[in-house]
Amino acid sequence: MAQTITERTPLWRLRIFLFSKWNGLARRRMLDWVPDVPFLKIQYFLKLGRRLNLKHPRLYNEKAQWIKLYDRQPIYNIFVDKLAVRDYVKQQVGEQYLIPEIARYQRPWDIQWDKLPQRYVLKCTHGSSCNIIQDGSLTPAQLEQKKARLPGWMASNWFYLSREWPYLAVKPRILVEQFLEGPNGSVPLDYKFLCFDGEPKYVIVDVDRYKDGGDGHRRNFYDLNWVRQDMLNRHPGYDGEVPRPTCLEEMIGVAKALSQGIPHIRIDLYEVAGRVYFGEMTFFHGFGMEVFRPRSFEEHLGDLIRLPGEAKHP
User: Fold this and answer.
1) Scanning 91, 143, 161, 208, which has the fewest C-beta atoms within 10 Å of its C-beta?
2) What domains does the chain contain, in order, with CATH numbers?
3) 163: left (phi over 0), alpha (psi -120 to 50) or beta
């Protein structure tokens, strides 16, 4: 399996530096005045080093940007709201797939920290990567550092970072769920199902996601027959083989049920002690600006997305 994701040339380093600066300005709401189309064209070029084709999108990343701009359905707001989506999951596939809820709060200062169990996962309901994972190993000082970030997370609107429209109207709240225990007490494997028009096609498996501060994160791709795909995306591939999940067929069924009527969405699931749990629904994998190696895989994934009014690719 290939292990090189990007060739880190001086030009690449400059682009990624500027991409980081651009995102920093966007996160601080200093680019709100930039219309959505030019904003995304600039961000896309800085990340991937090529022009964004919105008139005739073909690649996976191009179609993701098209969906951001032109496929804005109100129900999408529910899918990215980590509280509201629980009702949708319960209705579509059943309450048994929900991670048990411990508490919910409106504001950071409402949290009763002393009443939380030793292990839990705290999530802001309106964004991405705004979590506190207390697996029992966080020291009081480390926990205080993470708690200090909560007001900033709650004041943020994730739409403005990459114009992901589903986030725009989501009300900020706080959800605390039970910590799911994987092997040796660690975080369980994260199975991300890439779904197209209600049909799961590939599974991304994230291994050691939080190891060494994220530096140990490894990622493999599998098809639905659990054949590993020779491709890379953002993280190096895992050296070993990930065993086929015991509940794979059930997971495929859950992903299929939750993704009906949507051109493309990622359904994240867990398997713990022989049970399947729902994680989240994500429209734009890595902003829809991910580097895939080989490039042909990005083309293939793009062919699987049928935009509204577009004929299905053979």
Assistant:
1) 91
2) 97-180 (3.30.1490)
3) left
CA dihedral angle for residue 68, residue 170, residue 155, residue 165, rounded to 10 degrees:
10
User: Residue 17: which residues within 8 A CB-CB, separation 6 or more?
Assistant: none
Burial string for 12-49 (b: 16+ CB within 10 Å, else e) reads eeebeeebeebbeebeeeebeebeeeebbebbbbbbbe
Match 């030019």 to its residue by tokens: 38
Is the pLDDT reported for residue 131 higher than 70?
A: yes
CB 67 within 8 A of CB 79: no
182-203: pLDDT as tens digits: 877 778 899 999 999 999 999 9
Q: Is the peptide bond before 38 cis (omega within 30 degrees of 0)?
A: no
- CA–CA separation, 162 and 104 (whole Å): 27
Q: How many CB atoms lie within 10 A of CB 262?
A: 20
Strands 218-223 and 120-124: unpaired
pLDDT band per the 50, 70, 90 thresholds, residue 314: very low
